[in-house]
Amino acid sequence: xxxxxxxEVRATTPENLTSALAIYAQLPQxxxxxxxxxxxxxxxxxxxxxxxxxxxxxxxxxxxSNDVALKITVLQALRxxxxxRDVKKIDLSAPHxxxxx
Length: 101
Known about the structure:
- The protein is α/β, with parallel strands linked by helices.
- The chain is 31% helix and 31% strand.
- It contains three helices and six strands, in the order βααβββαββ.
- The chain has a six-stranded mixed β-sheet.
- Helix 3 (68-80) links the parallel strand 4 (57-63) and strand 5 (89-91).
- The longest helix has 13 residues, at 14-26.
- The protein starts with 7 loop residues before the first strand and ends with a strand.
- 19% of the residues are buried.
């Protein structure tokens, strides 16, 4: 059963769970606040789902738990751009070459 105020966390292995929690621990509070779920179903493939305003959601593919600070910086820069206000998915698994959809 979900605990109010905490995201659902799912992982297929203990190692994947460790990666997911390592990313969660480094997220700014503003990203934790809208986090619905965090899951790691494959090795080095952590994904989060965030509820945004007006019923929108954003899926973020973090990849592994390396370079999380850089990934957060890239994420914040991408979300600050007007042309990205309606994106549904951001892939940060390669933070020097992010993919926005």
